[in-house]
Amino acid sequence: MKLYSERFSLPILPRRLIAIAAFALCSGYSHAADPFTVKDIRVEGIQRTEAGTVFSYLPVRVGETFTDEKGAAAIKALYATGFFKDVRIEVEGDVLVVFVEERPAIASVTFTGTKEFDKDQLTKALKEIGVGESRIFDKALVDRAEQELKRQYLSRGLYSAQITTTVTPIERNRVAITFAVDEGDVARIKNINIIGNKAFSEKELISMLSLRTPGWFTWYSKADQYSKQKLAGDIEKVKSFYQDRGYIEMQIESTQVSITPDKKDIFITINIKEGEKYTVSDVKLEGEMFGREAELASLVQLKKGEVFSGAKLTASTKNISDRLGNFGYAFANVNANPQIDREKKEVAFTVLIDPGKRVYVRNINIGGNTKTRDEVIRREMRQFENSWYDAEKIKLSRDRVDRLDYFSDVTIETPDVPGKTDQVDVNLGVTEKPTGNIMLGAGFSSSEKLSLSGGVNQANAFGSGNTVGVNVNTSRLNRTIAVSSTNPYFTDDGISRSYEVFIRTTRPPVINSGDYRIRTTGGNIKFGVPFTEYDTVFFGAGVERTEIQTYTGLTNYNDSPDAFKRYVDSINGVANSTTDPLSAFATGQHNASAIGVPLTAAWQRDNRDSALVPTKGRYQRANFEISPAGDSNYYRATYQHQYFKPLFGGSTTLALNGEVNYGKGLGGKTYPIFKNFYGGGIGSVRGYESSSLGPKAPNGDPLGGSARIILNAELQFPFPGSGLDRSLRWFTFFDAGNVYADSFGGGGLKASAGIGLSWVSPIGPLKLSFGKPLNAKTDGDITQRDRTQAFQFQLGTGF
């Protein structure tokens, strides 16, 4: 760094160049300027920099004595700011004059020719290292930015990319920086060769690699573009593959990566040494086990006489470490030492257990909750402060907070307490997400004509954890208004309470202009009582008043659907208080009114890892509803079971769902038609029109039924290019199910298969599916035909 200016002003007298004196001090020259008292300080040459900034770096103030040492320190400090490319200090009488020449400012940073990277992201990245608008221009930083940009292109396989940086001076001491990029062609992997393999074919080994030669989908996944990080990961996959099959001494001897002179083709060669295949001769535990030898031994997955498996050995040591963590030993060391007998091709393991000190939790710290109250999160915690560390309870706490579905991300860490060897803190971090949900929809069909639907639900109202909602649905045939509220912690013990008040009107279509309308007004209250960490039992009661009216127009009551007539007759409802049913038919109107008092009991078990995008665990719910009093006497039972299992290292999820529903009238009464079940569409059997399965009216419109079976199976995969992002996935599915009039049977199950996409988008959950019915009936009597619909979607809008 240049400490002293080489620009000298002549004549020197009466102006003295302090820079010369400072240079003399540094070089050992004997002549030096005499100290003097500063009467004033003046700064010249500044355009953008404030004078106060310059004064703050000077080691002398007005009224103080200025020396050559202070002059040298001042020049060094001003250069170190990076604001100036030249600094001079001169003296006019007793006035100190600081001359500076500012470095130019960056007026703009632009990119041309960039297709591989988003320009806004590049601009942001460069600004973080000091190259951005309004920053001071530094040639070294610009060169560094150019090299980093080249490195990024190399990581994308663009080895022939050329970058030309142009710095153009403009008015007011500013510069414009342009990065002109010629990306060239992408270098693709031409061949992958594995040498030294004997036990497994080269094709089998290459199939495990994430790197690929060009194929059908590599244009999108970019798996045919070389990456050093991906190759390192692939090498570990090959090693794990061998070690899981007994080859404990397998080694990767070398890897060679070469590129053709035109920088278009890449060749990868992996040299391996397989070694011998070993079986396990013995596994024993040593160390401090607190009298739990049998319990810890049961956690060992690697058994005597089996072929050695590195995955089982790792799982065994982890299981033991986790179990000790449940007893407070957070830093237990569990290591397996092998004893290899190459002659017998056997390996024995001694698992050394060092539990370390027992640890307790000092503080539980919660961060990231900008809206949700601390107490809403803390009441889900099963690990407590000032108690022994319990790894299982810490994991359960994280899962319970995640299942609230208030947060897009939940993380938990257990850092050591500084200066303590037996204490940790639990830091739970959350990322808030929109918990309100607006459902808006519009549709048109031949039966419903124009339909509008909407609803507002706030799952975490004002950060309290309570849920409130208003749902509205209106169309020619169906209208609903419902207001609901749920308090998940009505008591401190976790008993929940829910209210709902609703008005529902339904007008299913019938043939020959015959029509009927069902209007249900009511409300209910439900309580949920948790019995275990995963099990909750619900109890509830409600009151419903259902009015049923027919408007037969030019026909009579007999033109209404049989299910409707049976139900109306069962409650003996006659309109206008007439005693003559024929008179009622003649007026074209026949009414009925029924009071129901439904009582409900339900059980729910939920140990999924996430309520929104689960990858493992189960969800079960059984519900029984009975109305023993009033005019409407019936019972209905439902059972649902969901199962999620990660496959292929967690990248794929198997999701299964089964649901059975059944209802029946009590005391000889007919089952209420307004309690019917419906099937078809997203949420039941895709590929069939929504709610179209089961019994139909004479004109072919669906009536629903008192029994239903739904079966779903999905394989959920990461979307190509999204990594392991669980919010964006594609899936294949197989669905089966049907709706029945009175009991199961009669019609079999309708089946479909297809593909779909699910995305937890910024505006809410989106699900798309394209289904192909496998056994739909599309001809014959209209009451037997199935309504199919290949493409279906469902969208909720978050706020």
Task: Name its key features.
Ubiquitin-like (UB roll), 18-stranded antiparallel sheet, 14 helices, 799 residues, 4-stranded mixed sheet, alpha+beta
Give an overview of the whole structure.
This protein is α+β, with helices and mostly antiparallel strands. Among the domains are: about 15-100, Ubiquitin-like (UB roll) (Roll); about 105-180, membrane protein fhac (Ubiquitin-like (UB roll)); about 190-275, membrane protein fhac (Ubiquitin-like (UB roll)); about 280-355, membrane protein fhac (Ubiquitin-like (UB roll), Roll), CATH 3.10.20; about 360-430, Roll (Ubiquitin-like (UB roll)), CATH 3.10.20.310. Helix 1 (about 20-25) crosses helix 3 (about 70-80). The two termini are about 55 Å apart. Residues about 1-30, about 440-450, about 510-515, about 550-555 and about 575-590 have low confidence and may be disordered.
Write the layout of secondary structure elements.
Blueprint: E1 15-17, H1 18-27, E2 36-37, E3 40-44, H2 51-57, E4 65-66, H3 68-80, E5 84-92, E6 95-102, E7 105-112, H4 119-128, H5 139-155, E8 162-170, E9 174-182, E10 188-195, H6 202-206, H7 218-221, H8 228-243, E11 251-259, E12 265-273, E13 279-287, H9 293-297, H10 310-326, E14 333-341, E15 346-354, E16 360-367, H11 374-378, H12 391-403, E17 407-413, E18 423-432, E19 436-445, E20 449-458, E21 467-474, E22 478-487, E23 496-506, E24 516-530, E25 535-551, H13 562-571, H14 581-586, E26 589-596, E27 599-606, E28 617-627, E29 634-647, E30 652-665, E31 707-718, E32 728-740, E33 750-761, E34 764-773, E35 791-795, E36 797-798
Parallel strand pairs: 3-6, 7-9, 10-12, 13-15, 16-18
Antiparallel strand pairs: 1-5, 2-4, 5-6, 8-9, 11-12, 14-15, 17-18, 19-20, 19-36, 20-21, 21-22, 22-23, 23-24, 24-25, 25-26, 25-27, 27-28, 28-29, 29-30, 30-31, 31-32, 32-33, 33-34, 34-35
